[in-house]
Task: inverse folding
């Protein structure tokens, strides 16, 4: 069973990811999952009140945060926050590349029209196995993902494979491969480079705004 295989202090991060991956959000379930981890709840409220978000009024509770954010932003926010906090309990070296990958994929997505795939989630989950110290198969267990996303994260053939490979090639400065994959995806090289630069700036801003302490 999942609960017997995953250390207790990591179960809530997976519960959060599962809660926001369902077709219909259950606000009460989501609120309970966030409150189930006191440190996560505290950090989320401080994080949401940071200048990055710029909400006009202070967010005082988890329920308030869920009301203020639309469904799309709730999903994005929870995924991002769970990654930010989970990575602090392991190694911060994984946090920046996870955020860069997520934002990079999100920025190139409008030019690709990859069906209904959430490319931000693809990039974010691509390092979740290392962040949580768990096999990717176990991380994805119970999370509602489309077939293409699940396949590419498990290293299997997928229509998203060229996008995933481009993400890795750009990250590793494999310029010939970047050029090849960009051409295959009909993306300009300058556009890909600009998206990666913007992703790095965004990721640095995100990590710089994360509160320290427990």
Result:
């Amino acid at each position: 069973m999942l609960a017997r295989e995953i250390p207790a202090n990591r179960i809530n991060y997976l519960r959060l990811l599962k809660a926001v991956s369902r077709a219909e959000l259950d606000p009460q379930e989501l609120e309970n999952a966030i409150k189930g981890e006191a440190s996560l709840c505290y950090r989320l409220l401080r994080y949401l009140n940071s200048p990055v978000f710029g909400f006009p009024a202070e967010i005082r509770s988890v329920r308030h945060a869920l009301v203020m954010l639309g469904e799309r932003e709730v999903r994005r926010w929870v995924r991002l926050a769970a990654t930010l906090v989970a990575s602090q309990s392991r190694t911060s070296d994984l946090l920046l590349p996870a955020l860069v990958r997520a934002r990079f994929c999100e920025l190139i997505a409008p030019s690709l029209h990859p069906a209904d795939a959430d490319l931000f989630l693809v990039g974010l989950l691509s390092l979740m196995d290392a962040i949580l110290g768990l096999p990717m198969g176990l991380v994805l267990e119970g999370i509602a993902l489309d077939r293409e996303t699940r396949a590419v994260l498990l290293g299997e053939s997928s229509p998203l494979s060229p996008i995933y490979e481009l993400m890795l090639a750009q990250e590793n400065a494999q310029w010939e491969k970047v050029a090849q994959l960009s051409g295959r995806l009909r993306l300009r090289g300058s556009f890909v480079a600009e998206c990666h630069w913007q992703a790095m700036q965004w990721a640095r801003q995100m990590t710089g705004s994360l509160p320290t302490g427990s």
